[in-house]
Amino acid sequence: MSEPTSTKPYLIRALFEWCVDNGYTPHLLVTVNGQTRVPMAYVKDGEIVLNLGPAATKDLQMSNDAISFSARFSGVSTSLYVPISAVRGIYARENGHGMFFEPEPEVAEDSTPEAAPPESPKKPTLTIVK
Predict the structure, then answer these.
(1) What is the pLDDT of residues 40-80, one digit of tens each?
(2) For the chain, where are the alpha helices, taking DSSP H only?
(3) Is residue 46 within 8 Å of 55, Cβ to Cβ?
(4) What strands lie across the sheet with 26-31, from one edge to the other?
């Protein structure tokens, strides 16, 4: 049986919808790493806070792997890409309610995890029950 998908992207989408439904401004706290595409001029201490509100973003896509959208920074349209692993939290700007996540280790883009040795499939057996 394969390992279940992470709950993190589902929780991020749910809290985003909760913010929007209640008239709050969803903000995303992101750890900037080699896979994250954000305007570096706005990064402080290796992190950036992004406004995900509908008025602040264009073409917002939230998949199980990443969040991508366009936003304006100092009047310049910029394409952003945030891997789900880089998301540290999502919260409402107005009241701070939301959820924060444990930091995840950065995975280098060119490295691949070592393959685990294949498990030998168990042969079916019959047991006599008296």
Answers:
(1) 999 999 999 999 999 999 999 999 999 999 999 999 999 99
(2) 8-21
(3) no
(4) 47-51, 26-31, 87-92, 98-100
Per the CB < 8 A criterion, the answer to whether 91 and 29 are in contact is yes
Domains and CATH numbers, the chain: 8-95 (2.30.30.220)
Contacts for 15 with CB less than 8 Å, ≥ 6 apart: 26, 90, 91, 98, 99
* Cα–Cα distance for residue pair 123/76, rounded to 1 Å: 61
Secondary structure of residue 75 in the 3-state scheme: coil
Residue 51 to residue 15: CA distance in whole angstroms: 13
Q: Can you tell me the distance from the alpha carbon of 65 to that of 6, in angstroms, rounded to the nearest whole number?
A: 10
User: Alpha-carbon torsion 66, 79, 61, 88, what sign?
Assistant: positive
Cβ count near 107 (within 10 Å)? 14
Cβ neighbours of residue 16 closer than 8 Å, sequence gap 6 or more: 26, 52, 62, 90
